[in-house]
Amino acid sequence: MNEQLKKIFARLSRQEKAQVDEEIRRAYDYDPRDPLFGLSKEELGGPKLSRRGFLRLLAASGGSLSLSHVLGAAGIVLPQAARVAAQAGGHLICGWAGTAEITTLDPAQINQVLQFQVSSNVLSGLTHINADLVAEGDLATDWTVSDDGLVWTFTLREGVTWHNGDPFTAADVLYTYNRSRDPQQSIHSGNLVNVVDLTALDDMTVQLTLGKPQASLLVKTLERSSGRAMTIVNQNAIESMGLQDYGLKPVGTGPFRVTEHQLGQGVVLERFDDYYDPARPVLDKITIIPIPENEPLAAAIETGDIHLIGGNGVAAELVDRFLANPDMVVDEIPGNGFQSMFVNPWREPMVVEDFNLSVDELKQQNGFKVRLALAKAFDRERFIQRGLFGRGVPAFGTINPAMGYYFDTAINESSEQRFDLEAARALLAEAGYPEGEGFPTLKLLTTPGGRRQGEVIVDMYRNNLNISIELDVKDFTVLIEDANRMEYDLLRLGSGGDFDPDDGLVDWMLSGSRFNGPNRNDADLVAARGELPFGFFAADRVDELINQQAVTADPEARKALVQEANQLTSDKLASIFLFHGTEILVHRAEVTFPAESRIVGLRDLDRVSIS
Amino acid sequence: MRYFVARVIQALIVVWAVGTLVFFMLRAVPGDPIQALLADVDPTAAEAIRAKLGLDQPVWVQYLFWMRNTLAGDLGQSLYGSHQEVSQQIAEAIPRTVSLALVAFLISFTLGLTAGIVSAVKKDSVLDYSFNLAAFLGISMPSFWIGIVLIIVFAVNLRWLPAIGYKPISAGIDQWLRYLILPGLSVGLPFSASIARLTRSAMLEVLGQDYITVARAKGMNEKRVIFRHALRNALIPVVTVMGISLALLFSGSVVVENVFAIKGLGRVLIQSILNRDYPVVQGSILLVAVLLVFMNLAVDMLYRLIDPRISYD
After folding, report:
1. pLDDT of residue A173
2. Which of A261, A388, A417, A535 is deepest in the core (most CB within 10 A)?
3. Which chain B residue shows the shortest CA-CA distance from A115?
4. Nearest Cβ partner of B42 from A187, A303, A484?
5. Which among A554, A603, A569, A607 has a CA at the least distance from the CA of A214?
């Protein structure tokens, strides 16, 4: 337990202390293998998962319980004095790493994590994920679900004011819904396809109807930061300011309001005095400066020109330097995403035309043998050391450790892809390339930023399988076009900002997913190579599992489906899964970043203070 | 005067040709802005966005629209994010780039000319060798590396100056200058090195001329010989290089802008090229073309002031 939490605990009343003790005692009072046994529908409902459900999920996820978790889950409101212990006021200056500008803060246009890291401090949603990736009410205070899981009724928070003084009502939710559904106005219209209707029952109640049940509704679709489709926006402000200005200085209901924004030079946020929680925010002012280069970023935080790093994350090579500096705090947690090397099944010698065959049947085919040899010859531990300076964990599927409850390291042992050099060499020989002899040179498509990791991959295959791979480095705009058209041998690509299993499975592993070669049958390509029935991967059973998990609201049942899909995509080599990154928060020692704000991928600054 | 008018017309044709070339080349290079924009999101929105931005039209129709709008002074909007006006992006970037260019220019001009003159006058002295070595290093070291070294020395170790950022002149001239000294040095030092080399060789050539010997023979003050007779004649090639340098500085020093996190013209241009943000690339290249062409014109006009023998009629 850290010092600050101890202080807070000391200030609690005797009754509250007893409640906390009881919660900790009860948290382990069940079989962790069956985390949701006996929980009712009410306990899974709002305003967040019941504390029983929450604590069980948490413990089952392997997360260690701390006082801060229990305080959050038990809903104890801290006495004002405890909050004031954290120094109020102050000006926090942040550097947003690896970016030249924060192009937009309008949720309808946001397409980068580094953008919603900022907007999450300014705008609100009906729900917001907490540090354990459980959805909590934000502008919604409570909700109920119909028995069939299709009709959700949300009670909205009373007395919420917009930064421009407008009162927040159901009309704002309705406006946001209609705006986000329109592909002319929002790039996230696809995320609302399953939300077939949204009605305002009265000023403070909205009812939402789904086409089919959806497990990720609360943590994805309605979420204020990564969700984006239902991050609530202000109609008056959009109409009076125009889209360009709103994109720079959106009017929200969040803890901070944007007072200045010059593209490329920075964003200034100031405390919003009428925020619905009077205890937040703690800071008076935040300045966010985009800093594209590593070395100046490091210099800026070492000199104290900036206090905290956000944006595209800290380059792995800087982390040890920060760890050695007593003025700096480095906090590393599992990241939320996966990184892969996709192997084109339509190019020799890796051809596989039907992934519906069983793994044993697939293993009879030379194309699959080559794919498997590539997967098994990939030494993830070594790659993580050499390519990432040790900052990552091996990946065998899209489900990542940040997803806690849904993640299981058992796959590291059970996957067909696990590292086995002898087996890999034998497979390559069986496929007709003993010791790599006669194996064609393959091209690995990657971005300029991926060059270093690419070199490590090239080197590893040269040493392990005696085959040669050439890097094909292209700007992202070109790379994504080639990827969508299936114009590559090997492709280095992956995903970040995945909070829910849907992010990896639905977006990548489904046969009709948005990344699975959507433009493979463009007219000029069909003329050259005929029609391709699928992109990099398609298996009926996997589709079935993914579609089923997406509509399964019961976490336990969903977990089983997710794990089976994850295992199949791994065993059948939907891609060679390489690693899950880690998320590293770096700030100066004078900044206090409380555990409850430590949400993977985000930089929620409402509870942060500076001395 | 007739010469001047002809040159301006020529310049305008060059600018038009550059704009047109860039327009078609951009569309010929691979890379689709809409696919990049939507990589993380919904592909069904792609067609709607393409139509909204007019990117579904044939290229020549897009070109005619672009020509019409450009002539009307409308450079269009960014394809990305909040779709900011190109003219606004450029207008915001210009003060930063001009500030950086001015400081860098002053540094390179002062250091370069001084070192060049001293080297020429004290040829083969220790001073000359030192300046030559420094100039050699200055030319060889890339500006981003100089920038990083300056940050480590003056920001991290000595804590004299800020490591990154930019403050507009409205924040006070001292603040403005504080933030510009390190980036100004990073850009200015390599330039000063080439100016020093050029000044030295031009001066040496002039100092070997008969009229210099005559001036000295008749007992003229050495200062007067150097500054009045030698330097003025040696300046012609130096001014040409400085004119082009200034134009290059105005079009932005991309690398240094990135190092010091200053969003000037260079960064606008590179960022937009990487994103295939067509309107922004076209707008900023057009501006750079105008700058280069007219800066060249200005230099040609300046020759007459320095050397009255040059005549354009």
Report:
1. 97
2. A417
3. B81
4. A187
5. A554
Cross-chain residue pair B151–A109, CB shorter than 8 Å:
no
For residues A550 and A103, give the distance between their C-alpha atoms in angstroms, rounded to a whole number. Answer: 32
The tokens describing A596, both together, are 């409850």
> Cβ–Cβ of B42/A299 closer than 8 Å?
no
Task: Name the residue with higher pLDDT: A591 or B76.
Answer: A591
**A47 prior amide bond cis, ω within 30:** yes
Task: Calculate ∠ Cα B251-B257-B258, nearest 5°.
Answer: 130
Could you read off the pLDDT of A513-548 as tens digits, one per residue?
Answer: 888 998 899 888 999 889 999 999 999 999 999 999
Beta bridge partners of A269: A258, A286
With CB atoms and an 8 Å threshold, state whether A295 touches B48. no
- Provide the residue type at A307 as one letter: H
Locate A152 and state its tokens.
Answer: 């959700």
Higher pLDDT, B225 or A205: A205
DSSP 8-state code for residue A509 = I
Q: At B286, which helix (H) or strand (E)? A: helix B278-306
3-class secondary structure, A370: helix
Tens digits of residue pLDDT in A215-258:
889 888 999 998 889 999 999 999 999 998 999 999 999 999 99
Strand partners, B45: none
Please give the average per-residue pLDDT across B279-298, as a whole number: 86
Whether B164 sits inside 8 A of A291 (CB atoms) is yes
CA A16/CA A8 separation, integer angstroms: 11
Chain A, 175 to 214: residues with Cβ < 8 Å from chain B are 183-184, 186-191
Q: A91-334+584-610: which CATH topology? A: D-Maltodextrin-Binding Protein; domain 2 (3.40.190)
Whole-angstrom Cα distance, residue A101 to residue A114?
A: 10
Task: Read off the pTM.
Answer: 0.78
Scanning A67-106 for CB atoms below 8 A from B yields: 95, 100-101, 103-106
Residue B164 Cα distances to A296, B12, B184, angstroms: 7, 38, 12
Are B162 and A290 inside 8 Å of each other by CB? Answer: no
What fold is seen in the domain A338-439+492-580? Dipeptide-binding Protein; domain 3 (3.10.105)
Residue B42 has pLDDT above 70, yes or no: no
Nearest of B63, B65, B84, B85 to residue B75 by alpha carbon:
B85
Q: Residue ranges of the domains in chain A?
A: 3-73, 91-334+584-610, 338-439+492-580
Q: Which residues of A touch B56 (CB under 8 A)?
A: none
